[in-house]
Amino acid sequence: MIGDDVEVIIVDVRGDKVRLGITAPKTISVHRKEVYEAIQREKAEGKEQSAPSAKPHIQKSSTG
After folding, report:
1. Nearest to 23 by CA among 6, 35, 38, 10
2. Are 45 and 62 in contact (CB under 8 A)?
3. Its pTM surpasses 0.70
4. Tens digit of pLDDT per residue, the chain (64 long)?
5. Which one of 17, 33, 40, 63 is most buried, by most CB atoms within 10 A?
6. Which among 32, 8, 2 is positioned nearest to 20, based on CA atoms?
7. Rounded to an integer, what distance in angstroms lies between the CA atom of residue 64 and that of residue 59?
């Protein structure tokens, strides 16, 4: 058990491979490490693309 809500069980063992079963509430995301890291990279890239640039764009108006 992890906390009160997450249960991890060994489903199968074959040689050096172990299959795990995880029961968790839908409010808790469960991912393999490489999937989690890919999600975090995508989130970081999305923030970089949507962040405003350091130099604000100033529009010059012509008067007169």
Report:
1. 6
2. no
3. no
4. 999 999 999 999 999 999 999 999 999 999 999 999 999 999 998 887 776 665 555 666 665 5
5. 40
6. 8
7. 16
CA-wise closest residue to 30 among 22, 38, 39:
22
What are the residue ranges spanned by the domains of the chain?
7-48
User: Residues 3, 10, 24, CA angle at the centre, nearest 5°?
Assistant: 35
pLDDT the model gives residue 50: 72
Distance, in Å, from the CA atom of 39 to the CA atom of 50, rounded to the nearest integer, reads 17
Tokens of 15: 């040689």
